[in-house]
What does this fold into?
Amino acid sequence: MAPSSGYEAYQKNRILTATPADLTLMLYEGAIKFCNIAIVACEKNEIQKAHDNIRKTDRVIEEFQITLNRKYKVAEDFDNVYKYIRERLTEANIKKDPEILEDVLKHLRTMRDTWKEVMRLTANGTKVN
It folds into this structure.
């Protein structure tokens, strides 16, 4: 299926040529976007839209959880954070509560910003001067 616009072609190419680190950043950005959409949908009482975007956010976090490299001790810490976020997303979805989603968003932004800093300081695991 051919992309329907130049932007879609750009996005597809961007994903296909991204490094694993860039893909991780894109996933964080996507989760943040979906969470923001869900917050607005909750505030407007757009129940289905809120549900759909909370689920999209959850699927991103689930992907992070599934792909953790469990041979490292820190993976357990990340897994606990992901579990917490997913529990909050479930609660937010049941209650359609934008305040809970704001809490999730805070955590997602912190994780994204930390990942950006890791990317800035490293290149293939080697510190950049």
Q: What stands out?
A: Strands lie at 122-123, 126-127. The CA atoms of residues 3 and 12 lie 8 Å apart. The longest helix spans residues 20-43. The first strand starts at residue 122 and ends at 123.
